[in-house]
Design goal:
This protein has 204 residues and is α/β, with parallel strands linked by helices. Helices cover 54% and strands 12% of the residues. α3 runs parallel beside α8.
Length: 204
């Protein structure tokens, strides 16, 4: 295959992802975003647990790191240092489909047994996770679940197979969204980049 063809796939995939992130941004519901920001502002003296599986879990870890840089008591599910939750603590649950077993079960236990507040980041607000959550932020993106659902429609209209496989579009859009949340928290808390840098790991 000629070199320019390989480059074309790379740039086309990047552009496809950029367009999907722009679409997700345009379709954000301001009231949902504001509710999440307010919850995080109120949780500065509470514990926050970030829950996600696979690549969504990696996105969650990146968000947790930035919350730590802002001074939050934040943990990631599965870590040995994650403490028990209590009333008023917050769970940030990330699942594009809203059906990821680990995420749904963890959120259900945290809400029913520990009275924690559940904030769901998903593309499907009517999913098990969405219905369970106290707050939902809908981040539109092609998820793993959508692959079979959109196959027939793509064949009808002659669209190509997406270059961003499985849940890539949701995961990247969610990471950009959560970085936007961090930017808003920095603004409201009066934090500068230097403040975050002071809490950055120094043993790398």
């Amino acid at each position: 295959m000629p070199k320019e063809d390989k480059t074309s796939v790379v740039t086309r995939a990047m552009n496809e992802i950029i367009e999907s992130v722009k679409k997700a941004s345009d379709l954000l519901i301001p009231e949902q975003v504001e509710a999440i920001i307010e919850t995080l502002m109120e949780a500065r003296d509470k514990k926050i647990l970030v829950v996600g599986a696979g690549r969504s879990g990696l996105v969650g870890k990146a968000f947790a790191m930035r919350l730590m840089h802002l001074g939050y008591q934040v943990y990631v599910t599965g870590e040995t240092i994650a403490p028990i939750l209590g009333p008023g603590d917050v769970v940030i649950a990330i699942s594009g489909s809203g059906t990821t077993r680990l995420v749904v079960i963890s959120s259900k236990i945290a809400k029913e047994r520990r009275e924690a507040r559940i904030v769901a980041i998903t593309s499907y607000p009517d999913s098990p996770l969405g219905r369970l959550a106290d707050q939902v932020a809908v981040v539109v993106g092609r998820t793993k679940m959508a692959r079979q659902e959109d196959y027939v429609s793509r064949q009808i209209v002659g669209e190509h197979e997406p270059l961003a496989p499985l849940g890539t579009q949701f995961e990247i859009a969610t990471m950009v969204f959560l970085d936007g949340v961090i930017a808003e928290l920095m603004h409201r808390l009066g934090k500068k980049e230097e403040d975050l840098k002071a809490r950055h790991a120094t043993i790398e």
